[in-house]
Amino acid sequence: MPEHHTDLTEDEIDYDQEEVQSAKEVVQFLTKTAKTLKIYLPNNPIHQKFINSLFEKLSTHIESFGPLRLRIKQFEILCSGQQIYENLNRLESIAFRLFIDGLRELSFYPGLEKKELITFLKIIGQEADDEAEGEAGADDDIVTRLWEKHLTHIQYIVVDDLKGDMDAVETCREMRPEPPKPQQLQALHQQEVVSPAHLVPKGVDIPALHIFKLSEEEVSAIKRELRWEEEIDIVNELEGMLFDILRIETDVARFSEVLGIIDNILEELMFKADFIHARKILEFYWEMLDPEKALSAELVDLLKKALIQGGNPERIASMDDVLNRVSSEALDQFLPLMVLFQKEVIPSVIELLAEVKAMKPRRVLCDILVELAQMDVNAIIACLHDRRWFVVRNLIYVLGKTGDACVIEHLPQFVHHEELKVSLRYERKSCMFWMR
């Protein structure tokens, strides 16, 4: 039976904050689980873990608050009149996919089975190209697929007419599979046995073609949609999915496998000078190493090794070509990235400093060493005996910028250095120390 609606506006509906928060968490996890379908096979343990966690969250919500009823808008999902999901990106938004196919309400009822949830996720999460498996074809929309699957504990309401303004359509009907009536079967039979003479094609009238001119408002709307599509951050989406996997994974072998995938991405990002996305990976590592996460000792050890691997000497040494050709804006993002590797990369950064030719990258590397010196100044002091005078000269500059008085005792040896530029650098830095 169709559900009855009151005249209350969404803002006037009383709601339970705990219920809305629980619904928000369920929908957030549902969108993440749907995305895993694109990178894992259904029998993959990681995907299965997401399914189990989602089913547990959804079942707990239904047991605590009753059926989960969601109102679908163009880019939003509401529960009890409160927004619990919003994504303006048409290619990624689950709300938009449901809305454009006519769904206006979606409900999950007590007794929901895991297989029903899996079927639902396949319908909304996978590309509509399952013909090889005998599924619905690419031309079938979400409503058609849901209707064909007869999901008993997942009910939905769709608009009656999609031809008009979808926002203005108020009449809804609940889609439920009904057996065909005898009259319908008889009419269908009559259509099938109609005389072939009646099927002879007649002349096709080609309607007159009209050229429509878009208004300025319509052009602006199209441009906005194009900008949304251009701004899709695919790397960020991929990182987010992998991070979510590690947040719930406890198996050491699978945790290590995902870390290996992330490290490959990190290396690719660094060599493409995408230091912003690369930094997000290191920030995630440190987030997971927070004691409040209460990870097992094995997982903590894997994360620490991933940090070391991320800044391994060979990888850092290979960054010279990248730094010599990147823009100043990209170089500004290199410093916060390297600092996250912490003191373990000091020797590698010094070697990189020796190889980089351009002035701007050398200055950025010196600034990185100044930051890392706060963690271990002795690691830089130990490199003062390097045979390359230009390396020593830059290290004296770095030590002078630290303002650490303990370095003074190591500098007098350079007062008579065979390279005049080194001795002059020493003189300037010594004066700066004494002035402080």
Short description:
By secondary structure, the protein is an alpha+beta fold. Helix content is 55%, strand content 7%.
SSE blueprint:
Elements: H1 17-36, H2 45-65, E1 68-72, E2 76-79, E3 82-86, H3 94-100, E4 103-108, H4 114-125, H5 142-149, E5 154-159, E6 172-174, H6 182-192, H7 216-230, H8 234-248, H9 252-271, H10 275-288, H11 297-310, H12 313-317, H13 320-325, H14 328-339, H15 346-355, H16 359-373, H17 377-381, H18 389-402, H19 420-435
Helix pairs in contact: 1-2, 1-4, 4-5, 8-9, 8-10, 9-10, 9-11, 10-11, 10-14, 14-16, 15-16, 16-18, 18-19
Would you kindly provide a written description of the structure presented here, covering whatever features stand out?
- With 436 residues, the chain is of the alpha+beta class.
- It contains 19 helices and 6 strands.
- The chain has 3 domains: 10-179, no CATH class; 235-310, no CATH class; 320-436, Leucine-rich Repeat Variant.
- A hairpin with a 2-residue loop joins strand 2 (76-79) and strand 3 (82-86).
- Helix 1 (17-36) runs antiparallel to helix 2 (45-65), helix 4 (114-125) packs antiparallel against helix 5 (142-149) and helix 10 (275-288) runs antiparallel to helix 11 (297-310).
- It is elongated and about 95 Å long.
- Mean pLDDT is 78; it is low at 1-8, 127-138, 161-177, 415-427 and 429-436.
